[in-house]
Structure formats: structure tokens, C-alpha cells
Design brief:
Elements (H helix, E strand, L loop, with lengths): L1 H16 L1 H10 L4 H22 L2 E6 L11 E4 L5 H7 L6 E6 L8 H7 L3 E3 L4 H16 L3 E4 L21 H6 L3 E7 L15 E7 L10 H5 L1 H16 L7
Parallel strand pairs: 1-7, 2-5, 2-6, 3-4, 3-5
Antiparallel strand pairs: 6-7
Length: 247
């Protein structure tokens, strides 16, 4: 429990003591966007790395060179843990927003930071609002901001499986004309969810797949893009799970 308490305390203190930073960035955002983006990215990268250090998480990163650095991308990953966001965000080379469920928008201070990081909130019960969120994501990738989605729609509770991928958010890549980068995350639930409320030191594998360019896909594959990416991640997951240290 010691790791859990220290990590939670650090997050709370970070959110409180960076209020002046957020106010400053709110003021400069429009006039000095590049500085704002670099500042926000640096602050959160540092904070996430500290949290993962406190939790004793060892990360094996594979094929990060697959991520294009000259364009925004749509990252697509499997999702079993709250820590999936931390594990993937510390790898990004440019400002990157995440699509989160709308309930997270109710969390004070956290929602403010998420706004500065170009995160979007998706209400899956409201089709009209969901479409608006996707269209905002399209505009963001067109402006050079990468986006990350977990198309299972919720955290998967069962180890070794993937829920069906929802197709809607994949339109961000198609309409925004940016590549899709599959992310396979293995063993992230072992940090926290598998033994809630305790945080335990563990090893996690994060592997980046080759970029997928929607314009190069056959019509049938494009029509079932979510299933196509899910198959890639499922195959990579099966390979990597064999490499984890014995528990």
C-alpha cells in the first residue's frame, strides 16, 4: 500500500501546485501556442515518469521507430488499466490528446490539464455529441496534434483478450489523412487493477506496430478498419505475453 499512497499523494500535490502553471498557460495559449504545447508536454511527461518510478514499473518499449515523427498520428491501443495512459504518453514525440469517457470531465483540476493536452471527452450515449468529438479530433490531427484512442470503449477486465473495437473513432485517421499506429500494451493491469487497491512493481511491454495508411487499404479492409487493427494488436499481444517474467 505504500506505493499506492505515495503515488496518489504525488498526483494530488502535482495537480494543486501546478495551478499557477495552468493559469499561465491559459493566458499564453493563443499567442504562444508552440511554447504552451512544449511546456504542457514537458510537465506531464515529468509527472507521469515520476508516478511510474514510484510504482516500480519497468517498461520494455519495442519498435518505437515505427512512429512517424514528421506528422500527427492516430494511436490505437488495447486497454486494461488506468496506467495505459501514462505508459503510452511518456513515449509521445509531440503534443498528443486522448479520447476519454465524458465522466472524467467531472474531476476537478484533472480536466483542466486534459484540456491543455488536447484531450477530448466522448459521450457514447449521445450520437450527435460523439460525432462532434470525432470531428474535433479530425481538426486536431490536421493541425499537427496526435490523438490516442482505446477503441474497446472501456477497460477490458479479462487478461489475454480484447473486446471488439468500435469503428467510429477510426474516422479521425481516415478524414484527417494521418497514419494509424497500433499500440500493444501487455501486463499493465498488473500494476494496479489486478490487486486493487495495491500498486505493485511489475514489468510492462509496450510495442508499436507499423503505421497504417488508410489510403493504401483495400475498400473492404477500410470498411472494417477496427477489426483489422484489432487483429494486429491481438497477434502482437500473443507474441509478447510469452516474454514476460514469471509471476
Amino acid at each position: 500500500m505504500i506505493r499506492t499512497i505515495i503515488a496518489l499523494l504525488f498526483i494530488i500535490l502535482f495537480l494543486i501546485f501546478t495551478i499557477p502553471v495552468m493559469i499561465f498557460e491559459e493566458i499564453i495559449w493563443k499567442k504562444h501556442k508552440d511554447f504552451h504545447d512544449r511546456s504542457s508536454l514537458a510537465c506531464v511527461l515529468w509527472a507521469f515518469r515520476v508516478v511510474l518510478f514510484i510504482c516500480g514499473t519497468k517498461i520494455i518499449v519495442k519498435n518505437k521507430e515505427n512512429v512517424p515523427t514528421d506528422t500527427a498520428v492516430l494511436y490505437v491501443g488495447n486497454h486494461r488499466s488506468f496506467f495505459d495512459i501514462l505508459l503510452t504518453y511518456i513515449q509521445v514525440p509531440r503534443p498528443t490528446g486522448y479520447i476519454s469517457k465524458i465522466e472524467v470531465k467531472k474531476v476537478p483540476l484533472l480536466r483542466w490539464w486534459m484540456k491543455h493536452l488536447y484531450c477530448l471527452f466522448l459521450d457514447r450515449e449521445d450520437i450527435k455529441q460523439g460525432l462532434k468529438t470525432v470531428l474535433t479530433g479530425v481538426e486536431q490531427v490536421k493541425s499537427g496534434i496526435s490523438m490516442t484512442i482505446f477503441p474497446e470503449g472501456t477497460r477490458n477486465r479479462e487478461e489475454g483478450t480484447l473486446l471488439p473495437f468500435k469503428e467510429g473513432s477510426f474516422k479521425i485517421a481516415e478524414k484527417g489523412n494521418v497514419p494509424i499506429v497500433p499500440i500493444t500494451i501487455v501486463n499493465s493491469a498488473s500494476i494496479f487493477e489486478d490487486h486493487f487497491p495495491k500498486v505493485k512493481a511489475t514489468t510492462v511491454i509496450v510495442e508499436y506496430g507499423k503505421p497504417i495508411y488508410t489510403k493504401e487499404l483495400e475498400k473492404e479492409t477500410l470498411k472494417n478498419l477496427g477489426s483489422h487493427v484489432r487483429e494486429i494488436i491481438a497477434a502482437t499481444y500473443a507474441q509478447n505475453v510469452k516474454e514476460l517474467p514469471a509471476k
